[in-house]
Amino acid sequence: MAYIEGFVAAVPTANKQAYLEQVRQGEVFFKKFGATRYVECWGDDVPKGVLTDFYKATQAREDETPIFSWIEYPDKATRDAANVKMLNDPDMGKMELPFDGQRMFWGGFEVILDR
């Protein structure tokens, strides 16, 4: 079954177009290194919670919008190899994030149900 790597971050709302341009560049790398699907989502209906939410998790400011994205790989081994290749790719290192990457979090997920 597929393996998913998910990302959550807060992007300055004014940088939406710059973010879209950056993720389009990133898509090339993810697909080049084995991703079968790449999805980027811009927060549209993201409620604020009492204990936790996307805003609190990313320490989002008033002028930022939460994003959620995921990359699908055929398996964990392909994802692990892709991450190593991306870290060592000089062109990937030239890309500048239009948001504070220190407040981004991510993780790998084993698919246990896909209908």
Give an overview of the whole structure.
It is a single chain. The protein is α+β, with helices and mostly antiparallel strands. The chain has one domain (3-7, 15-110): Alpha-Beta Plaits. Helix content is 34%, strand content 28%. It has helices at residues 16-32, 54-58, 76-88, 90-93, and strands at 3-12, 37-42, 64-73, 105-110. Strands 2-3-1-4 form a 4-stranded antiparallel β-sheet. The protein is globular. The termini are close together.
Search tags:
single chain; 115 residues; alpha+beta; Alpha-Beta Plaits; four-stranded antiparallel sheet; 34% helix; 28% strand
Helix content: 25-40%
DSSP strand (E) fraction? 25-35%
User: If helices are DSSP runs of H or I spanning 4 or more residues, what is the number of helices?
Assistant: 4
Distance between the termini: 12 Å
What is the CATH topology descriptor?
Alpha-Beta Plaits
Largest sheet: 4 strands, antiparallel
Strand order of the largest sheet: 2-3-1-4
Entry summary:
The protein is α+β, with helices and mostly antiparallel strands and 115 residues long. It has four helices and four strands, in the order E-H-E-H-E-H-H-E.
Give the topology.
Blueprint: E1 3-12, H1 16-32, E2 37-42, H2 54-58, E3 64-73, H3 76-88, H4 90-93, E4 105-110
Antiparallel strand pairs: 1-3, 1-4, 2-3
